[in-house]
Task: structure prediction
Amino acid sequence: MSNHTAEDGMLIERARKGDRSAFDDLVYKYESRAYQYAYRLTSSAEEAGDIVADAFIRVYGALANFKQRSSFSTWLYRIITNCFLDLRKREKNRPVSLESALSTDDGEMERQIEDPNAASDEQVERNERERLMMAAVAVLPEYQRAMITMYHAEGLSYEEIAEALDLPIGTVKSRLNRARLSLREHLAKNEELFGIS
Result:
């Protein structure tokens, strides 16, 4: 058992006994990582914040049932993924237009297009690759998006993804492979940027 796992176990036990500061310590320890994962899933700071808040509320409510067969972080990834999937289910019927104005605290504002002359050609190309990659990942089915993000962005192993999503490793590998093939198809239109042949 690693030091992190042992430390998490002690915090979980204290939190189960009503020690609010122990739960706060767990939140503090994992909130940045949780937000980073949620942001990679959504590409939206607001949605990522909502998902993380919802996830920690669910963690608090389910802490008594956490069996500690997996690490706390793996369990947290599962909960964040479920919160993301639930959010997407709720939003399926809500149309979004790229042409619409953005709502901010100061009112509405028109979408701004960045001046490509402000950066070097290399930077513009790198930004375009990143934009196209994010757009391609965004159109994947939610489970594939979560797996791609967990594996490539968060660095989780097949075993950790299988645990987080409660799936057999073979299923994770095949779905991840299908997700990569789908990404390749989406990115093939821009083969000069990605070197796809």
